[in-house]
Amino acid sequence: MTKKPTYVLGINAYDHDVSACLLRDGKIAVAIEKERITRRKHASGFYEEVVDYCCEAEGIRVQDIDLVVRNCYVLTVEDLETRLLYENIPEFMDPEERKLAKDHPLHLKSSDKIVTISHHVAHAYSAFAACPFDEGVVMIVDGVGSYATDVHEPGQMTEGVNPLARESESYYRFKGKEIETLKKVWLQPTRGFLSDEFYFMPGLGAMYSKVSSYIFGDWNKCGEVMGLAPYGRPNAFPPLINIVDGELQFPEWDRSFNRPWNMDEDWEKSPNLQHWQDMAWRMQDDSEKVLMMRAKWLRETTGARNLCIAGGVGLNCVANGKLVRDAGFENVWVQPAAGDNGIAIGCAYYGYLKLLGHERNHVINDAYFGMDYPALATREDAAQTRYKLDIKVKHSDDICAETAKLLTEGKVFGWYQGRGEFGPRALGNRSILVDPRKPEMKDIVNKRVKHRQAFRPFAPIVIAERAAEIFEGEEDSPFMLLAKRVLPEWLDRVPAIVHVDGTARVQTITQEQNPKTYRLLKEFEALTGVPVLLNTSFNVKGEPIVETPEDAIDCFLSTGFDYLALHDMLIEKTSMHHALAPARRTFHEIQTMVRRGLYPPSDSD
Questions:
Q1: How many CA atoms, within 13 angstroms, populate the side-chain half-sphere of residue 589?
Q2: 32 beta partners
Q3: Same domain assignment for residues 97 and 206
Q4: 103 and 196 share a domain?
Q5: Tens of pLDDT along 241-272?
Q6: In what order do the strands lie in the sheet with 7-12?
C-alpha cells in the first residue's frame, strides 16, 4: 500500500499579499498568491481562493491536509476572524467573502490541526528551512510585524516589552531545524490619525514605506524608491535615520517635509522631482548603512559563514548586493518571496519542522510553484471563439529557436511556459522578453506594454555560467534579488538592462532550473554572441503577473506585444485585431478599473 503523504498548508491571511503554500512530505508542492487569481494587486481578504488553488493543483481536499499554520500580522487570525463577525472591514472580508467564509472548513476553527504563529517567526522559517545551508544566521527586517502580546513562541525576547510594541527587526542563528533568537528590535506605539500610526513608527522598514508614501502616494512602492535613488544627489537630503551606539534614531519630520506627491499632478513633470530623487538617495543610503551594520554584527557575534534573508526589506536588491560583497559572509541567500507572500512558506515549514518534528529535506532551487496548465488545455484556451478574430496561432516545432530569431529582429515577446513563479519577480516562465543590445528597447517595452515611469530599470536574465563575464561577482542570483555592476566591456553591448548607476538586477539561470528558458538563451547566444535577454514581468503597470493562459492572451491583446510564445504555440495578432484594438483596450481598461474598485464611479467623483 502506498504511504499517504504528509500535507502541511501555510497561509498568509487577510492583509496584503494573501497567499498559501502546500508542503508534500516537506517539499513545496504548490504555492500561490491571491492576486494572481483575483487579478487585484497585493490582494487582501479571505483566503479561500488560495486554499482551493493549492488543493486543486495537488488533487486533494482540505480534509486531507494534516496541519494548517497561519499568520496575519494585524492580529492573530482567531482574533481577527472573531472581530470580523461584528465589524465591517471590506479590505479584510468583503460581503461576498463573508458568505463564502461561513461554510469554509478553516474559518473560525480552532484545533490542534489549525495553528497561528507570529510574523517574524514565520519569516524566519521561510528564510532558513529550505535554504542551501545546514547552519548560519537569519536577518528579518520589514515594515511591521506582530504585536508583542501576540508573539507566543518561546525565546522571542518579549520580556519587559510593551505589549503593543511591534516587531521591526529580528535576528536568529540556526543549525539543522533548530533556531535561536539573537536580537529583536521593537517598534514602540506612537500617535497617528486613527489607524495610520504605522507611518510614524520608528523602524527601518516603516521609514522606507513612509518615504514611498511621500514620493509615490503608496506605502508599497519601495522598489520604485530604490530605482529612483541613483538619480538623487549624494548627501543633498538630511539623514532620515541616524545610528548611535548601534541603535537607530529617527529625526522628527518637520515643516520642511511639505512636498509630497499630489496625485493630480504629472509625477515626472513635477517641480518637486529633484527633491524626491534626493530623498530616495538618502533613504536607500541610510538603509544600506543600517543593514551593513546589522550584518557585520551578526558575522562578528556568531562567526557564521552563511546569511539568510527574508522580510520585505529583503527585496531591496541593491542593499543585498552590497551585503554579498562587503558583509563578510561566504554565502548570502535571499528567499525568493521575501515579502509577506513568503509568510505562507514559513508557516508551512514551522508546522512541518517544529510542530510535526520532521527534519529538513528540501532546498528551494527555483520558484516555479504555480499550477501546471497542460499544453492541450492551453491550446483549447487559445482556440476560444472570443479570440478567433484577434489571434493567429501556429504550432512551432522549435519554439526556442523561432523565438530567439524573432527577438534579434527587435520583436517584443510574451513568454509563457511551465509553472508560474511564486513571489514578485518573473523568472522566465511568465516573462516579457526583448533583445537587450539596443538601448531603445527599454523605452519600446515601456511605451507599448509596461507603461511605467521612465526612470525604472529593466532586469537581465543571463546564462549562469556566463554571468561572471558580464556582471561583477561570482555568486549566482536565481531569484533576481541581487544588484550587480555591469562590467565596463559589456555596458555598450547590453545597454537596455543597465541602470543609470551602471548596475543591473541580475537573474542567473541554469539548465536544471529552467530547461526551456535556458535553451532560449542559448539559441539567442548562438545568433548574437550575447547570453542575455531583457526580462520583465508579464503584466502591465498596476496588475499582477499573469497566471492562466487566458490571462496571458488577454494581456497580449490589450498591449503592444508583437508575439506570444504560449508553450509550443507562436501567437500573433491578426489584421482584424488592429481594427478592433481601440474597443478592446477600452474594455480592458474598464475591467481593470472594476477590479480596483474604481468603476463605476461613486456619486462623489
A1: 7
A2: 20
A3: no
A4: no
A5: 999 999 999 999 999 999 999 988 999 999 99
A6: 27-33, 19-24, 7-12, 67-71, 114-116
